[in-house]
Amino acid sequence: MKVVVNLKAYPCDSVEVATAARDVSEESGVPIAVAPQAAHLERVAETGVETWAQHVSPVEHGSHTGSTLAEAAAEAGATGTMLNHSERRLKLADIDTALAAAERVGLETCICANNPDQIGAVAGLGPDAVAVEPPELIGTGTPVSKADPDIVTDAVAAAEDADDSVAVYCGAGISTGEDLTAAQELGAEGVLLASGVAKADDPKAALEDLVAPL
Amino acid sequence: MKVVVNLKAYPCDSVEVATAARDVSEESGVPIAVAPQAAHLERVAETGVETWAQHVSPVEHGSHTGSTLAEAAAEAGATGTMLNHSERRLKLADIDTALAAAERVGLETCICANNPDQIGAVAGLGPDAVAVEPPELIGTGTPVSKADPDIVTDAVAAAEDADDSVAVYCGAGISTGEDLTAAQELGAEGVLLASGVAKADDPKAALEDLVAPL
Amino acid sequence: MKVVVNLKAYPCDSVEVATAARDVSEESGVPIAVAPQAAHLERVAETGVETWAQHVSPVEHGSHTGSTLAEAAAEAGATGTMLNHSERRLKLADIDTALAAAERVGLETCICANNPDQIGAVAGLGPDAVAVEPPELIGTGTPVSKADPDIVTDAVAAAEDADDSVAVYCGAGISTGEDLTAAQELGAEGVLLASGVAKADDPKAALEDLVAPL
Amino acid sequence: MKVVVNLKAYPCDSVEVATAARDVSEESGVPIAVAPQAAHLERVAETGVETWAQHVSPVEHGSHTGSTLAEAAAEAGATGTMLNHSERRLKLADIDTALAAAERVGLETCICANNPDQIGAVAGLGPDAVAVEPPELIGTGTPVSKADPDIVTDAVAAAEDADDSVAVYCGAGISTGEDLTAAQELGAEGVLLASGVAKADDPKAALEDLVAPL
């Protein structure tokens, strides 16, 4: 199982969460990546944690003011990126181009989508992973694995149909070790989480609890 | 006169340009800011140059994956930001909210617009500066001060009508000291430029040439 | 006072509302326009009511699949259009271009905005009218004239500063004759309303009530 | 083979093209649909031709000013719709929701995409048809079947892998009967075309030439 911690635009201390993630990852052997604001990529990467961008733009070098260039993210230390998060939905053509941009600089990629149909669609584009996150569960604390386990198994089936080398991650409402185990049993190979760690009083304890069952 | 160098998503060495800008600014006394990719804000700020964001998002702390949070830009060292660049046009309501976000963290602000009418519109929102950049001249090497000087004088008049404390900058096609002087004579108090410095073989020499007449 | 009834994407009978508006307008002498879905412009215009588009695109004739071309709206019978409604916010540059498109075919124009600052901004672009609609009041049934009368007077002042030939309309929460009178007393020259008429059991009675005080 | 004529925002007489399409369809037995501006749906449908929307919005009845509600398009006479045309690209989640909107009112659906990968992605969502239109060929007069026949065969294969009940149409550069035959030989079951008919001096002759080989 892989864990990606999305810091969104939360008022958390990105270096504190990154340091906790690095330590828990080293201690547990579970790969944990942290995805901060683009402006914080460098300080997060300096902790030694696996660092992901929250998004990269569907552009190449050129006149693209205000974009998030994959090359710049990689130079700042990112080794992976989410794409099409429900808070940063992209046009289909732009998912395709942003994926190519990420691959151009060797970023690991995880494309998010709402439901099994869309998971099948994006898995066919060939990312490293896809993440199913029903929008209605994001930020609720109710894990998709409990609220609607069929969404996870259907997503796993849809991704496999499209391209069986694509891993399926599970997002929305994940916060405990039990949630993570439930996701794993449904076929997920990773989890995306956010507030459960980023807003925790003690991010390290939250991460330790999360990976304890593994 | 103030100079803002927009590095866009150019394949330039942002630290090299930043260092050149810092040195030329110190030697000449002309304020020169450099606006890199968000992921490069920290390394640019570390050179000591005045550092600007290319854009900040119309959001506060919260669930805004893939945004450019003003707080994060400021923490990375930005002290100013462009808004509504022609390559990153915003909805009017979002210009208003992004301006409030920038002001919330004390960023100096410069809102770009296409023509004098739009300059009047955005000046009324109360930024520190507005920049008139006719889209058809961006990247051409033909300065607006030559191609159509009335645009600059009309923009200055429109901004003054709306709010006479707002400075007017001039963008699009500026690259030489002569261009800068011409802009100044038309009433501009600053210039935005990009490829003329960022793509120059010798960015320092380009900046020295630019500020020489001042 | 002018009344614009926005049918949005409501499940109302657009011809029934249009017929009621036509009749009440003729009986009362108060100008009442109805703004249906683009696909219903023709059937609404055939009733003889003043017909408005809800939006026109910032384009000219050409390769713009899925746009709402001002020419097509006019050919279908529209004589006016809203622009930048809070449910269809536009980039500032696109407000400017869409306004030009509407003027190109002689449509009366009303640009919506959230607050007095934005009202000042769009009034400067020179439309026939602007409409202030605080987003937090839309659909609440609480008229802006009661919830926050200063917004209306400030919007009137801001528009006058920018261009004193631009009329100010008042939207959000207007449904009764009392609301309309209150808006008028604050300086508004028109009202935008939607659910109060479009979702009324008897749209004609709702409109008669609305214009009764005039 | 099915023919869909996209009138975009062209300055053509939509009723003249519709009448020609109706007549040629009746004479030849080839199904020909015409997709006008939303504001022209009603007048086009009144000719008796098969009428398509160029786009429908990913919304249901409600507060969606300026949208193109599927219900309104159907009430105006549309029996089909394009989605995600390269001039009206949608977010993936919105393609999914707009498709559901179109199906809710019984519209035939054709989702456009740039390349075989994206065709596979959208075919998996279950529309009636998908259309491959390489953006670089749109409006060139060079048919994709000549410029790059592999794109068509790869698109047909990708769609079949995803859902073998989905028809593949071929767009971009189609204008003659020869182009249509070439598309058919590569596995396409329909064509999208635009300027070749809409801008023809004699649309009826252009359509007759198009369907002659069938």
Q: What are the salient characteristics of this protein?
A:
Triosephosphate isomerase (chains A, B, C, D), gluconeogenesis (chains A, B, C, D), about 210 residues, eight-stranded parallel barrel, about 15% strand, TIM Barrel, homotetramer, Triosephosphate_isomerase (chains A, B, C, D), cytoplasm (chains A, B, C, D), triose-phosphate isomerase activity (chains A, B, C, D)
Description:
The structure is a homotetramer of 214-residue chains. By secondary structure, chain A is of the alpha/beta class. Chain A contains 10 helices and 8 strands. Chain A has an 8-stranded parallel β-barrel, surrounded by 5 helices. Chain A binds chain B through residues 6, 8-11, 36-43, 53-55, 57, 59-69, 71-73, 75-76, 78, 82, 85-88, 138-139, 194-195, and chain B through 6, 8-11, 36-43, 53-55, 57, 59-69, 71-73, 75-76, 78, 82, 85-88, 138-139, 194-195.
Characterize the quaternary organization of these chains.
Answer: homotetramer
Give a quick account of the main beta sheet of chain A: strands, pairing sense, barrel closure.
8 strands, parallel, barrel
Instruction: Indicate the percent of residues in helices of chain A.
Output: 40-55%
**What proportion of the residues of chain A form beta strands (DSSP E)?**
15-25%
Shape of chain A: globular
H and E order of chain A = EHEHEHEHEHEHHEHEHH
Number of helical stretches of at least 4 residues of chain A: 10
β-strand number of chain A: 8
- Let me know the average pLDDT of chain A: 94
CATH homology group of chain A: Aldolase class I
Radius of gyration from the alpha-carbon trace of chain A, in angstroms: 16 Å
Work out the count of structural domains of chain A.
1
Protein name (chains A, B, C, D): Triosephosphate isomerase
Keywords (chains A, B, C, D): Cytoplasm, Gluconeogenesis, Glycolysis, Isomerase
Function (chains A, B, C, D): Involved in the gluconeogenesis. Catalyzes stereospecifically the conversion of dihydroxyacetone phosphate (DHAP) to D-glyceraldehyde-3-phosphate (G3P).
Family (chains A, B, C, D): Belongs to the triosephosphate isomerase family.
